[in-house]
Each structure stands twice: as C-alpha cells, then as structure tokens.
Amino acid sequence: MKLPWLTTVLDQSGPILSVHLDTTRTDPSAAAELEARWAKMRSQLRSEGAPSQLLAEIEERVLSPSSLGGRHGRSIFATDTQILVDRVLPAPPLRESAHRGEFPQLLPLLQLIPFAVSQLLIVVDRAGADLHLRSSENPSISHGPNGLGDDSTVEGGHDVLHKASVGGGPQHGWRADNFEARVEDSWERNADVVAGTVEKLLREHQVDMVMLSGDVRAIGLLRDALGRETRDRLIEVQGGSRGVALDRGPFRDELNRATHEFITARQQKLAARFRESQARDGASVGGAAEVAQALARGQVEELVFVSGNEPAGIEELLRAALATDAAISALEEDKLGLPDWIGGLLRWRDGSPPSNSIGSMSGDLRRE
Predict the structure, then answer these.
(1) Among 214, 165, 161, 167, which residue's Cα sits nearest to residue 185?
(2) Counting CB atoms within 10 angstroms of each CB, which of 58, 75, 240, 332 has the fewest?
(3) Domain carrying residue 27
(4) Are both 303 and 188 inside the same structural domain?
(5) Is 256 part of a structural domain of the chain?
(6) Which CATH number does the domain housing residue 293 bear?
(7) pLDDT attached to residue 206
(8) How far apart are CA 275 and CA 252, in angstroms?
(9) Are residues 277 and 226 in the same domain?
(10) Inter-residue contact 198 to 227 (CB < 8 Å)
(11) What are phi and psi of 314, to 5 degrees?
C-alpha cells in the first residue's frame, strides 16, 4: 500500500507527537475507560514537553464519539503547534501508545494495514442506486458522510417501473406487450445511468473492493451495463435495500463477512507474490540487514513485515520505505518464514544484490 499522506508527517522536523488509541465505545463503561487511558497518555506526553493547548485539542478529538461503530481506533500525529494527521482506524491498534520525539512513531498505525480496505458499496433497485464509499478518510460504510456528495444517490430518471395493469383491468395483446417493453426499457436505462456513475467513481477513487446488493433483477441489469473490468470485481452481498440503514444486524454481518473474506484473500495473494519472487533470483530480500541495504539504495518496491513480530529498528526501516516511495504491506501471520519477520520486493536487480534466499537465512535463533 502506498501512503503518500504520511509524507506530511515525515517532512516535519521534531519533536513529533504520536498517539495511537483504541477509541471503541461498544458499551456504557467504554467511554470512562477511554477517558482513563487517555488521561495516562496525556500525563506522559505533558511530562515529555507537549504543550497543554495541543493536548487539549487532541483530547477533544479522541474523546468525542466518532461516526464509526464497532471496534475501532485513532491515530494522531502532530507538531507542538498543529495536528498534521488525524485518522479514525477500522480496527484498534495492537498496542496503544503515546510518544513525543524527534521522529514519528509509525508502527502502531502501519500494523493495521491489512484492515485498510477501501470499498464502494452499491445498493441498487430498478429506479437507481445508493452508493456508499469507505476509504481511509471515512473508514465506515454504515455511519457518517461518505464523501460522494451528489453521487451518493443515483436516480435513473425513467419512471415506468412496474408491470401493472393499464386502465384498471388486465391487458391483452399488443398493448400489454408494449407496456411491458417500456418497463423493461426503463429498467435498462436506469441501470445504464447507475453504471456510468459507478465507472466514474472508480476512476476518481482508488477502491479495493466493489460490493453490490439490492434488487435481484436490478443487480443483473447493472452487471450487464458495467464494463468487463468492473464486472469482474463485483462481490455480491445479500440483504441490502435502498433507503434502509446499513448497520442493521443481518446485512451488517454480511458486509463484515465479505470484508473478512476479501482481507484473507488479499493476504494470501501477498504471500504468494512474495513466494513467487523468491523463485526469481534477486527479485526480493529477507531479513532486517538485507532490507536496510536495499532501502539505502532505493531498491525496495514494497516492504513486507509481520504485524506483532517486527525486528529491532523497524521504525527506521518504515521511514526509509516511505522516504523512497516504497509501498508497505503487513501480514497478520508469518506465512513465509521471513527472517526477522521482514522482507522486501525489489524494483530492480543489480549485479550484486543482497542475499535473497529465505531458505538460506533460516539461522535466526528465534525461529528455530
């Protein structure tokens, strides 16, 4: 994953303040627990020299309920005079932390990369569609504004929608056939309008996952109207209806299930891609020292690490990756046997690349 929005943090000279906090409010006691945990962080940051005015601004943000339901977190980066980045996270950090120092503390945020899935949800009927965007700026589909403005609702404008009787009684012959043809034509034209908006949004936004729900007949018509590339990306989710809250139990569960399956599949693809790179001499490296050498040459295309098992010096490696415009990915489990639980996919191979055979680097005593 590319993270250009973090360059604002890296470009600042220290001190930089970093806060990573579980802001879940799933029961009445959660708010009080959050206030207590934040009070300890605030006291620590104050002792490290953070200005009171800045801490008060951060406190207002982290203690205010977010639009995101369920378990979630928040990461904030700031100088002593301004907040640089404030992100509501789709999952709580693995470890809460507060830090003020020369460099930002990036790891608690980047450990959550597997859960950073941007999604477009299309809920369609025969008149149009409701569109919902989940992105890093808006990590909830079912709560809060979705950032799509006028594109959040699409009405096809063709309103002959129901195959009903004409003139109050059953119709026969050409009149009934003609009316039904007009209805079918309205459905198809409305699907074309929705498809046009969907294709535009996918061009404008980097969306990982495209989900489709709603009326069965409208789903089929929209599939036919979309381009092949978009059609191949569609993931159907049962139970959606236009104008109905997305956070109701059964449909919310279906959205969560589809998202979990997508994340699992993406993790498997990442692991497979790294394994394939190992078959190509010099296409990847493994181990902290080897990765550091490749980063110093600007050679790393994508840094891969295992969340919760990072090597010493991981913060420096993460900063080096971001500074050289490398993507960063995290694995929830060590599916590769990576030495030091870190590796890198390379942009190019030179005459003397660092050792890249994972099998030859299994001498890490912690892994024996």
Answers:
(1) 161
(2) 332
(3) 4-110
(4) no
(5) no
(6) 3.30.1330.30
(7) 86
(8) 35
(9) no
(10) no
(11) -65, -35
CA distances from 19 to 81, 83, 227, 305 (A): 15, 11, 43, 22
97, two tokens = 């932390």
Count of C-beta atoms within a 10 Å radius of residue 192: 16
At residue 159 the predicted structure's pLDDT band, cuts being 50, 70 and 90, is low
The 3 state secondary structure assigned to the chain is: CCCHHHHHHHCCCCCEEEEEEECCCCCHHHHHHHHHHHHHHHHHHHHCCCCHHHHHHHHHHHHCCCCCCCCCEEEEEECCCCEEEEEEECCCCCCCEEEEECCCCCHHHHCCHHHCCCEEEEEECCCEEEEEEECCCCCCCCCCCCCCHHHHEEECCCCCCCCCCECCECCCCHHHHHHHHHHHHHHHHHHHHHHHHHHHHHHHCCCCEEEEEECHHHHHHHHHHCCHHHHHHEEECCCCCCCCCCCCHHHHHHHHHHHHHHHHHHHHHHHHHHHHHHCCCCCEEECHHHHHHHHHCCCEEEEEEECCCCCCCHHHHHHHHHHCCCEEEEECCCCCCCHHHEEEEECCCCCCCCCCCHHHHCCCHHHC
Question: Both tokens of residue 245?
Answer: 């809250």
Distance CA 314, CA 43 (A): 27
Q: β-strands 327-331, 300-306: how paired? A: parallel
Name 331's bridge partners.
306
- Total domains, the chain: 3
pLDDT at res. 165: 43
Q: What is the pTM of this model?
A: 0.80
Q: Is residue 261 part of a domain?
A: no
Of 48, 83, 110, which residue constitutes the final position of a domain? 110
CB distance 69 to 143 below 8 Å? yes
Q: Two tokens at 367? A: 């892994």
Is 60 inside a domain boundary? yes
**CA-to-CA distance for 268 and 265, rounded, in angstroms?**
5
Query: Could you tell me if 224 and 135 lie in one domain?
Result: yes
Same domain for 11 and 69, yes or no, is yes
pLDDT per residue as tens digits for the range 296-320? 999 999 999 999 999 999 999 999 9
Asked if residues 349 and 282 have their Cβ atoms less than 8 Å apart, the reply is: yes
Residue 345 belongs to some domain of the structure = yes
Query: Is 135:118 a contact under the CB 8 Å cutoff?
Result: yes
For residue 56, the domain's CATH number is 3.30.960
